[in-house]
Amino acid sequence: MPVSVLSAEQEQSPAGTSVADLPLIATFEGGERYQAGIYPVIVLSGSYREMGCQYGGLMKPELNEEYSFLMDSLTNQGITREEIIEEAGQVPQFYPQRIKEIFAGMAETTGLTTDDIAFLYYGPIFLLFATPNQEAVPASCSYLAAWGDYTKGGSPILSRNWDLGDSILPLTEWYVLAIYRPNDGSNIIATWSPAGVRPETFMNNKGLFIADDNCGREDDAPETRPEFITEYYRFMFDYSDLNALEAAINGTIPDTGWIVDVAGPDEAFVYEKSTNRTVKRTGDGVIAAANHFVDPSWNLPEPPEHSLSRYSNLLRQAEEAKGMIDAEKMMEIRDVCIEDGGSKFCHSDLGGGKYSSNHQVVFEPATLTLWMNVMDKDWQKVELPSLFSNETLK
């Protein structure tokens, strides 16, 4: 985003100041805003309330623009603002206190209420299900990780696509890489999502990665449970190796079925989670996931063609590139549209409307190097180690 969109409350930063070769654009109450190509990068430090305040102050114009877009889109469909806010107010009811503190901080510095912030958090889901002629989401996301004999250096290279209907594409204007550096001894984490929206792509300073894919099944818990995706904050803040992360995933029963994509500095896994069972999948140097449970013990019907083809294409592409996969090669794999034998939705026909890979990520856990993009825009590289540094934390 251009500097001109920054709010008056932000302090302009000295020219030439940078971290990880990113220019520092503004600061707000101890938070910092950098620029990585066309994407803002915000670094938040302190308590969870303070980090929320910094997020809101550094991203105030974007958060308000995005809020207006989402609210206008829904009210234009005949839904009243009162109905929307009443529903949104239920979203954080069972959220961890840390997340509620972040919400409260954002509300303090944006001019939005905590219910408005909760609406933003779940805004894409509200929008998807209110879009005319858009059937219930038939697919969402995919994952490919390679390591060992498949990569040039043996270390894992992983990737994910976040796929949704094209009604969500306007949100690509408000993406932000957010770095949370809490002062309570927890891990430092990064999230990649539209501003204020529930992240589904997380990394932490220990080289752990977690994301998710729609499992393609109707599988809702019989009783109230915390929302599983928001538990990713806890997983990333609290766990520092794959064994501990696996125990946390196994010990958390979801509110609905998910495919959970996990990687660390040495290997990668996929967890197929229903509301009453978890199956871990491993691979001999390569693993993929789309929108169906692969393990045969589920004894499920044949998956839909769009999921099976993307899953098969990813494994075929990895096999064809065996021994040559680095970040550049992984991005090449991920940039092939499904119509051309790849896994990327490129304004593709699906579920009664157009579908696209809203964002993509390639990540090297061993070096904490990230490449990110949004649909129809270029990839951007960001070196995370200096952004993850806690030298300035009090």
UniProtKB/TrEMBL annotation:
Q: Could you tell me which InterPro entries the record lists for this protein?
A: C45_proenzyme-like
The organism's place on the tree of life at top rank: Archaea
- NCBIfam families in UniProt: C45_proenzyme
- Name of this protein: Peptidase M1
